[in-house]
Amino acid sequence: MNRKPTASWQVFNVFNVLFLTLLSLAMLLPFLNVLAQSFSSSEAIVGGKVLFLPVQFTTINYEYVFSDASIWRAFGVTIYITVVGTLINLIATSSLAYPVSRPEYKGRKVIVIMVLITMVFSAPLIPNFILMKGLHLTNTLWALLLPGAISAFNFFVMRSFFMQIPSELIDSGRIDGCSELRMIWNIVLPLSKPVMASLGIFYAVGHWNTYQSAMYYLNKPALWPLQVKLRQLIDSDNIAIDPASSQFSGLAHMDPEGIKMATIILATIPIILIYPFLQKHFVKGMMVGSVKS
């Protein structure tokens, strides 16, 4: 039987729609402003004429970014640490979360407590730097990949998901003679696509936005990821362009604002494009542990 919505419920729906609309605009409009500035001339940007549409449309900012080898090198480093780092994260997290999710494994409570302690107490910067230097990981990309191989929060999310896998499935695999690795590969992982997709997005976004770790552990500009390169551009008052380039002749010291905005767009778009392909699994993964049978 359908009930007619009450007046208070209708009022709540109106305010809910208005609030979500304003929240969406607060997130979308700054992005549109950056996008508009990336396609606008430096005079329009400096003059404050650009709002949400390009003014004096130009692609010179993107032409400069595409011609800058250092930006492409930083882009390649970011792609590498995002792909390799996410794989390491998922393998390491699942390798730890699965054993402690099964009741037959001894000592799992001790491991859970040890992981929980890392969520409450974290090592300061100086001891971390001394450790990285002692392991000879400074000025290597491993300094960005290994220290955060397992996130404590993501570990508990994945453990909660593995605990919901029926024990009957695990027992049937053992009865059929499956080894632990084969059972994980053929039974557990195919059922774990939602949580893998969700945590994969979290890990990938974290690697894509790597900044502080790179600033602490990397002194070689050739190893800087895109976010560090972007910060270098933002801190620059002027961006020098090679006068020998005929394409940019006469723009030896163009205003850097448009180039900064174009770099921001290029740094943002790839990670946004990943979400639609994983949206279905991401929504399922967010429901992990919300319902107990």
UniProtKB/TrEMBL annotation:
It is a multi-pass membrane protein. The keyword Lyase does not apply. GO terms for biological process: transmembrane transport. It holds the Pfam family BPD_transp_1. Its main location: membrane. Residues 75-278 form the ABC transmembrane type-1 domain. Signal peptide: none annotated. Keywords: Cell membrane, Membrane, Transmembrane, Transmembrane helix, Transport. One of its GO terms (cellular component) is plasma membrane. The chain crosses the membrane at residues 12-32, 71-98, 110-130, 142-162, 183-205, 258-278. InterPro entries: MetI-like, MetI-like_sf. It is found in: Cell membrane. Belongs to the binding-protein-dependent transport system permease family. This is ABC transporter permease. It comes from Paenibacillus pectinilyticus.
